């Protein structure tokens, strides 16, 4: 989770840095439509739109959290396919004028 209640025990000895980038997201022509908690409370949902007329590759990473797994989802957040996570980084191809939904777990 991205927060911790006061009554919860610490889950990691690794402190969170004082500053950093939570998510490194792609630049234009890829547009970030939504970033939200998954409806089933199982990860973070990221919706990306390729606004160009050619296929694009989107790269997502984090400087503060480690992305452990990622899945492609349909529009209603049902898992469709696994995405490879390499050193905490995800790459996904987005077809021209296409939309992708990604579930990230940290």
What's the helix and strand layout?
Layout: E1 30-37, E2 44-50, E3 56-60, E4 69-73, E5 79-83, E6 85-86, E7 89-94, E8 99-105
Antiparallel strand pairs: 1-2, 2-8, 3-7, 4-5, 4-8, 6-7
Explain how this protein is built:
- The structure is a single chain.
- This protein has no helices and 8 strands.
- The radius of gyration is 15 Å and the shape is globular.
- It is mainly beta and 106 residues long.
- The strands form 2 sheets. It has a 5-stranded antiparallel β-sheet with strand order 1-2-8-4-5, with no helix packed on it. A 3-stranded antiparallel β-sheet has the order 3-7-6, with no helix packed on it.
- The protein has strands spanning 30-37, 44-50, 56-60, 69-73, 79-83, 85-86, 89-94, 99-105.
- The mean pLDDT is 90.
- The relative contact order is 0.25.
